[in-house]
Design brief:
7 helices, mainly alpha, about 60% helix, 3 strands, about 180 residues, disordered C terminus, three-stranded antiparallel beta sheet
């Protein structure tokens, strides 16, 4: 098989990043207008809610989202002010903090989820994205271990299980979203 030229590789990469930015901008605009919520904040809430105990170490959350630690800290801080996320110290590591979705955050997720899904679908359709191809690519990358880390539900759950060990022992979700 003949190697694709460097120019074709660069064009493919630039096209992929452009499509990603266009889709993200479209989704972000709708979430901001309807709920005063940034897409990264929605992603943060969603990942916390899907985690086995609805909370994660801040470092795990940053890794799962593909964010820097400072970026995830800013996103969590904004949502903490709105009462959507709570942050508590890790009982096993004084240097670590847990982020947890609150009941108020769960209610907002339930309100936003339908609009989010419709906006994502509309954005992909408008951009002419073949979702089956994209799903196949994600599955390929996840199966081969060549992606760092692809955030599918399966990969996300694997990531949370391999965590530092301090967030699963003796922690349960309480009605206030605290009590870790």
């Amino acid at each position: 098989m003949e190697r694709v030229s460097a120019a074709a590789d660069i064009l493919a990469y630039e096209t992929l990043t452009l499509i990603s930015r266009l889709a993200e901008t479209s989704v972000n605009r709708v979430l901001q207008q309807e709920f005063a919520l940034a897409r990264e904040e929605y992603a943060t809430l969603s990942h916390l809610h899907r985690s086995p105990h609805q909370f994660l170490h801040m470092t795990e959350l940053a890794t799962a989202l593909g964010f820097s630690r400072s970026r995830v800290s800013r996103a969590v801080a904004r949502q903490e002010l709105r009462g959507l996320i709570s942050r508590t110290a890790c009982p096993r590591d004084a240097r670590a903090a847990h982020a947890a979705v609150t009941d108020q955050g769960i209610v907002l997720l339930q309100q936003v989820s339908g609009l989010y899904e419709a906006t994502v679908r509309g954005s992909l359709t408008q951009l002419g994205i073949d979702t089956e191809q994209m799903t196949g690519l994600v599955e390929h990358l996840t199966a081969n271990g060549s992606a760092h880390p692809i955030t599918t539900d399966r990969a996300f759950l694997t990531l949370t299980r391999v965590a530092s060990g301090c967030h699963f022992v003796g922690h349960t979700r309480t009605s206030g979203g605290r009590g870790r």
